[in-house]
Design goal:
Chain lengths: ~130, ~150
């Protein structure tokens, strides 16, 4: 009975003092605006197409991906200056984006996402009568 | 990270020390802040080096770099990887909103940690990772010594 109480206490202390940091890596991004869309480019070297998750929710675009650059089976890691952790980045989307129509492709470690504007946001020529 | 770099001083050619110092300071802050990482630009590409019995494997991050724009050379035990990340440019009539990705030339050198069979070095570029396999020269491979 006494030992059990001790065990429970240990677990709680452990949860409170746990100091292992959770790493995530923020990938660099370029964004530009064209006449009919916003284009987002993200550096995700080492990601595989299947490991990239791209979610649209509550006006946010979430990008997550694993970095599988080397296989531990290839030997002991003896040097690395690659920041640890999986790629994670969240973008808030403004008004006027057509969420039903998003293009994404992954090439050479760069993810390109094209978010099209709603009709009313696109530039229009006004004819003068 | 600080400790790791000091343990392998051979991997640091002296002219790169300034950059390494900057990286050390950055990684110290990363550690202290529990992994808050600011997007980085304008520096030598980062890499991993793995070591096994018969070869070392280097994996360098080169996103957006074309295969034909990478140059690898070995001279007097120094491996040099250089090249260029070409700016794809913006389509006409568009307006940049954020520019964190750096384009242009890059170079990184490292002293090979062991003699390498230069003719058998193989490299491939996939998903933005340059993988260079450095087979160990015969004299660098582990050998069992029999006791007489």
């Amino acid at each position: 009975m006494n030992t059990r109480a001790m065990e429970t206490q240990n677990v709680q202390t452990d949860a409170l003092t746990r100091t292992t940091p959770v790493y995530c890596r923020v990938p660099a991004a370029d964004i530009y605006e064209t006449g009919d869309a916003y284009v987002l480019m993200l550096d995700l070297p080492g990601a595989r197409k299947e490991s990239i998750s791209l979610t649209l929710e509550k006006g946010e675009l979430r990008v997550k991906a694993e970095n599988d650059r080397t296989d531990p089976a290839e030997g002991m890691l003896f040097f690395s200056d690659v920041p640890p952790g999986a790629y994670t980045r969240v973008f808030s989307l403004g008004e006027g984006i057509n969420l039903a129509n998003v293009d994404a492709r992954f090439e050479n470690g760069v993810l390109t996402v094209k978010l099209y504007k709603n009709e009313e946001r696109k530039p229009r020529e006004i004819t003068i009568h | 990270m600080l400790v790791r770099l000091q343990r392998f001083p051979l991997l640091r050619p002296s002219w790169e020390n300034v950059m390494d110092f900057e990286r050390d300071v950055d990684s110290l802050f990363d550690t202290l802040l529990g992994g808050t990482v600011v997007p980085r630009t304008r520096r030598a590409p980062v890499m991993d080096l793995r070591d096994s019995e018969n070869e070392s494997v280097l994996a360098m991050e080169l996103p957006g770099v074309a295969k034909e724009d990478v140059k690898i050379s070995v001279e007097k035990g120094i491996l040099t990887i250089s090249g260029e990340r070409k700016d794809p440019g913006l389509p006409e009539g568009s307006r940049p909103l954020r520019s964190e990705i750096s384009y242009g030339t890059f170079v990184r050198t490292l002293e090979l940690p062991h003699p390498v069979n230069v003719d058998a070095i193989a490299a491939e570029l996939n998903n933005g990772i340059l993988r260079v396999v450095l087979p160990k020269a015969e004299e660098a491979r582990p050998r069992a010594i029999s006791v007489k």
